[in-house]
């Protein structure tokens, strides 16, 4: 499949309050967000021309900006309206959406108090984060050498660009070895998450997931936990030691991009794509398309 660069596509992007042609939605190379990571974003999916949990995603975008020390120069209602406008103009039934806010190029130093805050919203087709055939059997995860940092070293509750540097490194290393992704430990050596998705395990009909105390508590993670509880499936948030991973029978990832993705193996540990994993996949697919609610 030919690679289509993201700077050379048809369509429109909402940038700083107005729609502009896709190729004109540019920023300068000396932008603070590029050099110093002063950038926050959201990843959200469009189903049947509606953004799933739009208001919650926008609220998190604003909270991420607050944690990063800057104020978005639009209201949440305006950003929600921009997201809906972009979907309508694109004419896509199902898609992936990226709102992003970042410091501009007015100042180029660690301190950038006077830099303008820019905001953009783009949407594009993205059917599945992982190959559908591989996903059906359960993807293979490597174990990353990079760890999620301690909560007193980063603004870990923010969905901030700089926090994904070690995720890119980990995923690239995993892919080079033939894996689809990698599981990351936290600074204590406990199970944390994958490079861009939260992780769940199954044992004896119960769900287990790590405490989100140093990584993002994903909206998809929260949705799946609600779906499980609605089915009377016990959900346990706990500290998970690496030695426990082999005791689980099922494993899956959750995220706006990943949706609910079965995991077939992590390193030498293997899992089945079992009943609970399949149920969560079906329930999630139904709720995002409005077929039922929790």
Q: What key phrases describe this protein's structure?
A:
294 residues; alpha+beta; D-amino Acid Aminotransferase, Chain A, domain 1; D-amino Acid Aminotransferase, Chain A, domain 2; 2 domains; 9-stranded mixed beta sheet; 7-stranded antiparallel beta sheet; 27% strand; globular
Explained architecture:
- The model has no long low-confidence stretch (mean pLDDT 96).
- The chain has helices at residues 32-36, 54-67, 76-90, 132-137, 165-176, 219-230, 275-288, and strands at residues 12-15, 18-21, 39-41, 44-47, 50-51, 95-103, 117-124, 139-143, 181-185, 191-194, 198-203, 206-210, 235-238, 250-255, 259-266, 269-270.
- It is of the alpha+beta class and 294 residues long.
- It contains seven helices and 16 strands.
- The protein starts with 11 loop residues before the first strand and ends in a 6-residue tail after the last helix.
- Strands 8, 9, 10, 11, 12, 13, 14, 15 and 16 form a nine-stranded mixed β-sheet that branches.
- It folds into two domains: 12-124, Aminotransferase class 4, branched-chain amino acid transferase, N-terminal domain (D-amino Acid Aminotransferase, Chain A, domain 1, 2-Layer Sandwich); 132-288, D-amino Acid Aminotransferase, Chain A, domain 2 (Alpha-Beta Barrel), CATH 3.20.10.10.
């Amino acid at each position: 499949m030919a690679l289509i660069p993201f700077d050379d596509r048809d369509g429109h992007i909402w940038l700083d309050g107005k729609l502009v042609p896709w190729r004109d939605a540019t920023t300068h190379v000396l932008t603070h967000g590029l050099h110093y990571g002063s950038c926050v974003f959201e990843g959200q999916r469009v189903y049947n021309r509606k953004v799933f949990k739009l208001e919650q995603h926008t609220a998190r975008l604003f909270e991420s900006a607050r944690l990063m020390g800057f104020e978005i120069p639009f209201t949440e209602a305006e950003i929600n309206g921009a997201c809906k406008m972009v979907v309508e103009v694109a004419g896509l039934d199902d898609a992936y959406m990226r709102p992003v806010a970042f410091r501009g190029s007015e100042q180029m130093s660690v301190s950038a108090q006077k830099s303008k805050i820019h905001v953009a919203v783009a949407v594009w087709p993205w059917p599945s984060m992982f190959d559908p055939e591989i996903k059906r059997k359960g993807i293979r995860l490597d174990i990353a050498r990079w760890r999620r940092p301690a909560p007193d070293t980063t603004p870990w509750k923010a969905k901030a660009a700089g926090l994904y540097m070690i995720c890119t490194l980990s995923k690239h290393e995993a892919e080079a070895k033939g894996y689809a992704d990698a599981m990351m430990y936290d600074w204590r050596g406990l199970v944390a998450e994958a490079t861009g998705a939260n992780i769940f395990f199954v044992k004896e009909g119960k769900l287990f997931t790590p405490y989100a105390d140093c990584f993002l508590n994903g909206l998809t993670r929260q949705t799946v936990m609600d779906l499980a509880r609605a089915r009377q499936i016990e959900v346990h948030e706990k500290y998970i030691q690496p030695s426990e991973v082999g005791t689980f029978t099922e494993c899956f990832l959750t995220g706006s991009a990943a949706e609910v993705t079965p995991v077939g193996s992590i390193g030498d540990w293997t899992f089945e794509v079992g009943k609970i994993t399949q149920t969560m996949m079906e329930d999630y697919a139904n709720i995002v398309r409005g077929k039922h609610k929790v």
